[in-house]
Amino acid sequence: MRITSRENPRVKQYILLRDKKSARKSDGLFVIEGARLALDAIKEGVKLECAFFSDSAAEHFPDAVSALSGALGERLYSVDDALAQKLAGTVATQGIFAVAARLDKNLPSDKIVYGGKYLVLDSLQDPGNVGTILRAADAMGVSGVYLCDCCDLYNPKLIRSTMGSVFRLKTDDSMSFGELAKMFSEAHIPLFATVVDSKAKDIRIFDFPESCAVVIGNEGSGLSDEDIALCCDSITIRMKGSIESLNAASAATVFLWELMK
């Protein structure tokens, strides 16, 4: 089907899901933009509700359009390049857009089993940072990622920043940090706070136990004293020169490497 108007209900729904966290939450849907992300979503079995492709996308990304056609049939819509710009959340759009159901690769939110190594993100608010961290977590092979009071897991910028990793990772974003700390304590899995503190243990010589979790705090303020107190110990990256701290995504990657090596 060809769609030509921004007033089309499918188009209006896509724009609403793109722009509003409340709509994503209430509808249980989120949006995907880009040829690579669309192909990754299909490959990982993400349930797609519908999709759109522009005239330019049909020319430049025929494989993605063909894959979407096979997955969606009549729920794949063509749009002209002008309407594609209305759908776009990026400046240089590839002209491929999809509406997807919330992911079902969920970690337990009521109990956790001893044995895995986990990442916990506590109050991170930048979607690009969180997406980059999730991509690193996927690359390192962590058992899962818990997000406590963070930005929306389905924010379009976050989804793009993961470059498909969010479709593969096991995640949970339903708990406060206090609830999560209680669950980990009951499972006898230690939480380790990552801090900027000369008194904390040096990550280079720290021995992680068989099953544990590393906690990364807010980009600007780090972890609160209350949340640090709920952890079993604190670890830090020793800095050289005049550097005081690293970007949250950079620091998380260092901690993940040491956790999983």
In short:
38% of the residues lie in helices and 20% in strands. The protein is α/β, with parallel strands linked by helices.
Short descriptors:
261 residues; alpha/beta; 2 domains; 7-stranded parallel β-sheet; 5-stranded mixed β-sheet; 12 strands; 20% strand; elongated
Q: Helices, strands, pairings?
A:
Layout: E1 2-3, H1 9-19, H2 21-27, E2 29-33, H3 35-43, E3 48-54, H4 55-60, H5 62-72, E4 76-79, H6 81-87, E5 96-101, E6 117-122, H7 127-140, E7 144-148, H8 156-162, E8 171-172, H9 177-186, E9 191-194, E10 201-202, E11 212-216, H10 225-229, E12 233-236, H11 248-260
Parallel strand pairs: 1-4, 3-4, 6-7, 6-11, 7-8, 9-11, 9-12, 10-12
Antiparallel strand pairs: 2-5, 3-5
What do you see in this structure?
This protein is elongated. Strands 8-7-6-11-9-12-10 form a 7-stranded parallel β-sheet, sandwiched between helices. Strands 1-4-3-5-2 form a 5-stranded mixed β-sheet, sandwiched between helices. The protein has 11 helices and 12 strands. It starts with a strand and ends with a helix. The protein has 2 domains: 100 residues, 60s Ribosomal Protein L30, Chain: A; 144 residues, 3-Layer(aba) Sandwich (Alpha/beta knot), CATH 3.40.1280.10. Helix 7 packs parallel to helix 11. With 261 residues, the chain is of the alpha/beta class. Strand 6, helix 7 and strand 7 form a beta-alpha-beta unit.
What portion of residues belong to β-strands?
A: 15-25%
> Radius of gyration, rounded?
20 Å
CATH architectural arrangement of the largest domain: 3-Layer(aba) Sandwich
List low-pLDDT spans: none
Termini gap? 50 Å
Task: Assign the CATH topology of the largest domain.
Answer: Alpha/beta knot
Please state the overall shape, judged from the principal axes of the Cα atoms.
Answer: elongated
Continuous helix count: 11
Query: What is the averaged pLDDT score?
Result: 95
Q: How does the major sheet shape up? A: 7 strands, parallel
Helix content: 25-40%
